Amino acid sequence: MASQSSQNGAIIAGINVTPLVDIMMVLLIIFLVTAHLAVVPPKGLPLNLPNSASAETVQLVFAIALYEGGKATVNGRYLNSDEDLLSMARLEHQAHPEVRAVVQADGKVLHERVVHAIDLLSQAGISQIAFGVMLTPKAAPDTAAPAGSVTP
Q: How many alpha carbons lie under 13 Å from residue 20 in its C-beta half-sphere?
């Protein structure tokens, strides 16, 4: 029992925290389960999607690659100048207003050049811009060297 006093009508000074702990444990379990589902990539949940004879591409990509020497390509075609980038971006935006741009820049390209390319895309009306990166492969757990071993 909570602390009882000899006087009737005295205030009970103890608080029973068991229901609070029970509720917090249930919430913790719910968060753990839902967090796992939120992190699993879309390919983790198998879906049988229906086929369509008149399917269209959902996402149009305007790919820009900036190279170290100052050269640039748009969708694999070399550009002569930045004005070409602006005109091509405007034409693509007029043809497909929902187009998304992906900027891939070499690690040695100056930040100023990348920002300039983004500014040209904004002037053309393209607002959905992403950066392309190269993923470095991770070593599989079974191929990693055991702790304390030296690899040549």
A: 3
Residues 106/91, Cβ–Cβ less than 8 Å: no
Question: Per residue of the chain (152 residues), what is the pLDDT tens digit?
Answer: 455 555 677 777 788 889 999 999 999 999 888 876 666 555 454 556 667 666 565 567 888 888 888 888 888 888 888 788 899 999 988 988 888 898 888 888 888 998 999 999 999 998 888 888 665 555 545 544 444 444 44
- Domains belonging to the chain, first-starting first, are 61-131 (3.30.420.270)
Q: Are 64 and 85 in contact (CB under 8 A)?
A: yes
